[in-house]
Amino acid sequence: MRKVYISGTGQVPVSENWDKSLKELAGDAALLAMEDADIGYPDALFVGNMMAITANKQAQLGTMMSDWLGFHHKPGLAIEAACGSGAAAFRAGLIAIASGEIESALVIGVEKMTDSPAAEITASLATAADAELESDFGLSFVAINALIMQRYMFEYGWRHADFADFSVNAHANGSHNPCARFQKAISRQAFLDAPMVSDPINLMDASPIGDGAAAIILTSQPIKRPFPQVFVAGSSSCTDTISVQTRKNSTFLTAAANSAKLAYAQAGIGPKDIGVFEYHDAFSIMAALSLEACGFAEPGQGPRLALDGKIKFDSDIPVATKGGLKARGHPVGATGIYQLIEVAQQLRGTAGFTQVKRTRFGMAQNIGGSGSNVITHILQRE
User: Fold this and answer.
1) What was the pLDDT predicted at 206?
2) Interatomic CA distance for residues 345 and 200, integer angstroms
3) How high is the pLDDT of residue 300?
4) For the whole model, what pTM was predicted?
5) Which CA distances in Å does 292 have to 7, 48, 256, 259?
6) Bridge partners, residue 216, by sequence
7) So what's the pLDDT on residue 19?
8) 3-state helix, strand, coil in the chain (%, to 5)
9) Active-site residue set
10) Where are the alpha helices (DSSP H) in the chain?
11) Which of 211, 257, 279, 333 is deepest in the core (most CB within 10 A)?
């Protein structure tokens, strides 16, 4: 398998983009990535998206975006893996190039959510769960994560207040990101005072939805740039039961652990070598569980890293350096591409105020469902 390089990136701000359609958002991000790479049309197009069929009444996003961008007569595929759709599309493009099938690919992650009623979006998000065992009984996605958090707090003795620093850190970093949904720092008190959504998850535990699109150009050869080259050193996808209740341990992300281990092995490194980790902090409980699954903390000790300040961008294991899902926002199908762009920026040394110290290896982990489908990528600076 040959090296695959991240040669161009583009992203639009996560927001309520009332004046843009799904294909316009995706097209804007794609054109930015193509301009950044300056290679013309790539050989294939991969689109990550979860809810276009239900929220936008649009299927065939691969074909639609090929048409919109003028990629006529070239491969164009849509990839769906719930909240992990962006990273799944990236992995599809990566494999196509690494195998020698193509030389370049455009990968887009896009979601258009704010045009649809809130109840419709809630129902669409719930399709990431097990319909027969969870959503058909009225469990929303936030309710499922609330049950996981309740069990975790019971098992390990944490209080809800102990999770505050995950959100405080994300918002502090997001305040320096012009593409973030929320660009304002919050206090621990603001976290504690936030209204309850599904006990124990309150508004400040949960990531906001929004419209967003991000795109990456992948190539088999490096393109001359004024900053270091970044390539994919490890890539892995693992699954678990789609229903949380059928897992042996509901407070450990087995698929995330297995995915990370495989990616570490491919890159020839371990957790201590990672200089930045963009985790999938859809809820604060997922932040804690991700740190534990990926080897940065022992089971049950994830909140300790946040309480001790070790997750800040200038500390031991920087996370959510551009705001994470909590502050940058969680435009579901696009999230995985935003994460990868943010890691690439860190390794290139172009991350601005929240630039991390160690820039050889960075990791992004995109989670579909409540830990049921996990895609991990490790990027390396050449």
Assistant:
1) 98
2) 34
3) 98
4) 0.98
5) 32, 27, 9, 13
6) 9, 107
7) 94
8) 40, 20, 40
9) 83, 330
10) 22-37, 52-55, 61-69, 85-98, 118-125, 141-156, 164-174, 188-193, 254-267, 284-293, 302-307, 324-327, 335-348
11) 333
Q: What does the pLDDT read at residue 115?
A: 87
pLDDT at 54: 93
C-alpha separations of 127 from 120, 229, 247 in Å: 11, 38, 18
Query: How many CB atoms within 10 Å of residue 15?
Result: 17
The CA angle 231-379-212, to the nearest 5 degrees, is: 100
**Annotated domain spans of the chain:** 5-117+209-219
**Integer Cα distance of 297 and 278 in angstroms:** 15
pLDDT on residue 225 = 87
At residue 198, φ and ψ (nearest 5 deg) are: -150, 105
Residue 194's nearest CA partner among 326, 96, 312 is: 326
CB 276 within 8 A of CB 236: no
Q: Token match 């906001």: residue?
A: 208
Tokens representing 126 are 């719930």
Measured CA distances, 305 to 32, 64, 125, 231, 253 (Å): 36, 44, 30, 29, 17
Q: Kindly give the interhelix angle for 164-174 and 284-293, rounded to the nearest 10 degrees.
A: 100
Nearest residue to 106 (alpha-carbon basis) of 43, 22, 36, 35? 43
Please give the structure tokens belonging to residue 6.
């991240």
What is d(CA 64, CA 81) in angstroms, rounded to the nearest whole number? Answer: 19
Other Cβ atoms less than 10 A from the Cβ of 292: the count is: 23
**Preceding omega of 299 cis (within 30 degrees of 0):** no
Residues of the chain with confidence (pLDDT) below 70: none
**Identity at 96, one-letter amino acid code:** A
Question: Domain spanning 5-117+209-219: which superfamily?
Answer: Thiolase/Chalcone synthase (3.40.47.10)
Tokens of 33: 């990535």
Tokens in use for 188?
Answer: 């621990």
Q: Name the 3-class secondary structure at 231.
A: strand
- Token output for 292: 């534990």
Q: Which residue has the tokens 């593409």?
A: 179
